[in-house]
Amino acid sequence: MKKPNILLVDDDEVYLFVTKRILSNLSSDILVTSFTDGERAIEYINLCIEEKVELPEVILLDINMPFMDGWGFLSEFKKMKPVLPNHNVNIFMVTSSNDPDDFSKAKDFEEITGYIVKPVFEDKMTQILEEIYDGNW
Amino acid sequence: MWSRIIKTSLALYIPLLIFTLVWGYLQKHSLITNIAHIQQRNIQNKSYHLEDQCEVLIDITSYWSNVVFPANFSNGEPLDSAFINEYIRIMQGYEVYDQLRFLDLHGDEILRYERTDDKTMEPKDLQRKVDRSYFQKGLSLKKGQVYISPIELNKENGVIEKPYKPVIRGVTPIFDADQIQIGLAVTNFNMNKVFDLMKARISEDNFYLVDKDRNVITTNLSNNVLPHQASMSQQDSSIKKKLQLRNLIFEKDTFFMEKGSLWVFQNVNIGFGKNTDISLQDDIVEVITENDWAIIQEIPPSYISKRLKTIRRNLILFNILTLIVISLFAFGYGRTQKEKRNFVTELKQKNKALLDSQNRLKSTNRLVKQANDRLQVRNRQLEDFNYVVAHNLKAPVTSMSIIVDMLSKAKNQETFNELLPKLETISKNISTLTQDVHTYVSILNNTKLELENVNLLLLLKEVENDFVETLVDKEAKNFETIYKLDAWHTLKCSRFYMKSILQNFLSNAIKYRRTDVNSHIIFESAWENDQKVLFIKDNGLGIDLAQHGNNLFKLYKRFHRNISGKGMGLFIVRSQLEAMYASIEVESTVNQGTTFKIKFKTHEKTKHSFSG
User: Fold this and answer.
1) Structural domain containing residue A48
2) Taking the CB of residue B537, how many other CB atoms lie within 10 A of it?
3) According to the model, what pLDDT value does residue A1 have?
């Protein structure tokens, strides 16, 4: 049984701390990686491709970030798609924005599995994991 | 319109008026000529009448020059009474025949017959006539000669006879059997009857018989005969005066208009030429006379104007009709012209109105476009603000709600200790954020900017000096600020904003310079489509616009990882520029440099959009 592998991309340190805490509360077997901007996350994915390491199954992606925002990340990710080691990457937009523009923009990316508005409480996180891992986590 | 109608009417009417006046004048002239010819014929008849009388007088007088008188013809030796009685009996019937006298060579009458009434002539007392001019003239006559005296008032015994009797005398010498002159025969004709005939009018004409001195012998205007010989009444004087006509210098037969009257002048020809033919005797009768009469007939103005009335009436009628027709025509023409003009004027007005409304529409459109531009900017600013609220403000709040949730579920002190500092961080973040948002919103809300003429060069120097103090000597050596403000260097703007903007650009240029080259920033002013433009060029790190272009002017966006920054500078710069109705564009190449281009709106237009 493989451990769930989750990537957090968000510039909000408090969010990252809180989310990691929630995940660790849910299960001690979840692997969590985090970056504070899109550019760094892309660099990590590039590294994974080079090293032929499997990508995380779940990416919780913030929209509003410095250097490279969520949209920037998505367009870069789209370019890498053909060379990805595994294709079961589920990207969730996790943002405090309930701006309809953001929501409709998100719909244009078929890479996006879901759109989650912060705050992400424990139950919501459970729901996401259930959906992706079908109880196997 | 009326002046045009009148002008048209006159243009048509004046030639016709001239024509009718000429025509009228010709008509008048021909009428007057016609009247004058009639008068001339009338005068001719009167003249003949007078001539006839003279010829009869000549004949009757000359008869005695061939009669053989007794050698001692006197009272004592009279003529054969049967012969003279028979002669008088015949002559009694001839009313004009007034007197028959025989004078001896001393001027004493030998025999005197005088008319007493219409039918009778009787012998009368003898008189002495030695001092009378006809006697003197008679003495100088030769046999066969007859002297015709002027027409004079008859005198008896040296006194003018009353009532006045105008007479004309024929005088001829008489001889005895030995052809010795023994005296004179004098025949008097009473001219009253002759004059009555001559005075008869054919119209309203005034008749004057004048002698060579232009003395009136008789006229139908006065009952006086030969007034100059008896006594001149006032009327007679005025008549004489009236006859002093300018046109009568040469006494030739003529007619003319003077003093409003038509005057016809004709000399009376006593006709001595005919005399010989008419003479009953074989011997030629030679007539001696000083008479030189003329007849003047005057057609008074009243009669002429009466005769001219028809012509004048026709003339006036024709002119009135013409004038009416022309006026109607001109009125119609004027109306058409006016309508045409009105139509053109209306068309012009409509055109003008159309043009005006077009211009208004254009200016309205321009205003609408400006307002639209402003609205778009405003809209984008609102979106930006919305974005900040949706992302930057909500984020800490959501994090806080989770922490609070966790805290409420926390079972041990360790969790508290772990979580509380996080709340502190959030609170600090929120505080920073609210400050930044406040800065931003205050720019957005500041609609009453204090605009003043700012000298850009001075302002830049001021900003530069502030920075130089913060730069380390080494840095200052490698960084140069260049000004190219030839195009323009003063700008109507908010001094405070402009300073903040220039500070940001200078600060960024220093912060994001390439350390391996000599860095510079150029401030360059220029004109573009009558708009002031300011270029800010640096040779710094540059920004990848393909990646970051959309976010360049957004809040908390940063593009250079290793350089500290809040991500607020350009966001504030654009907000401040937009508050001054300026816009900003950017061009950049990584590792070469960045050029910002600021377009300032002209002040008038800025004002416009304020009011609009």
Assistant:
1) 5-133
2) 19
3) 55
Chain A residues with CB inside 8 Å of B558's CB? 66-67
Residue B607, pLDDT > 80, answer: no
The pair of structure tokens assigned to B290 is 């000083």
Domain with residue A100: its CATH number is 3.40.50.2300
Instruction: Using a CB–CB cutoff of 8 Å, tell me whether B448 touches chain A.
Output: no
What is the rounded distance in angstroms from the CA atom of residue B148 to the CA atom of residue B375? 135
Looking at CA atoms only, how far is residue A25 from chain B in angstroms?
11
Residues 6+ away with beta carbon under 8 Å from A4: A27, A29, A30, A31, A57, A58, A129, A132, A133, A137
Exposure string for B151-161, b = 16+ CB within 10 A, e = fewer: bbbbeeeeeee
pLDDT at residue B534 is higher than 90: yes
Residue of B nearest to A94 (CA): B395
For residues B53-74, b (16+ Cβ closer than 10 Å) or e, as one string?
A: bbbbbbbbbbbbbeeebeeebe
Q: At a CB cut-off of 8 Å and minimum separation 6, what does B113 contact? A: B88, B99, B100, B101, B121, B122, B123, B124
Structure-token pair, residue B324: 């009416």
In the structure, what pLDDT confidence band is assigned to residue B197 with cuts at 50, 70 and 90? Answer: confident
- Partners of A64 on chain B (C-beta within 8 Å) are 387, 391-392, 395, 556
DSSP B458-499: HHHHHHHHHHHHHS-HHHHHHEEEEEE-SS--EEEEEHHHHH
Instruction: Please tell me which of A54-63, B6-15, B596-605 the model is most confident about, judged by mean pLDDT.
Output: A54-63
Is the backbone of residue B542 left (phi > 0), alpha (psi -120 to 50) or beta?
Answer: left
Residues of B in contact with A120 (CB under 8 A): 402
Q: What is this structure's pTM?
A: 0.52
Considering CB atoms only, which of A17, A21, A96 is closest to B394? A96
pLDDT tens digit sequence for B227-283 = 888 888 888 888 888 888 888 877 788 999 998 899 999 988 775 544 444 444 455
How far is A54 from chain B, CA to nearest CA, in Å? 27
Question: What was the pLDDT predicted at B387?
Answer: 81
Residue in chain A nearest B422 by alpha carbon = A14
Q: Which two tokens stand for residue B35?
A: 């009247």
Please indicate whether, in this complex, the C-beta atoms of B391 and A121 are within 8 angstroms of each other. Answer: no
Domain count within chain A: 1
Q: Write the ipTM.
A: 0.83
How many whole angstroms from its chain centre is CA B127?
Answer: 86
Of B386, B391, B559, the CB nearest to A64: B391
Tokens describing residue B334: 């004027």
In the chain, the amino acid numbered B239 is I
CA–CA gap between residue A115 and residue A99 (Å, rounded): 12
CA distance A1 to chain B (A): 30
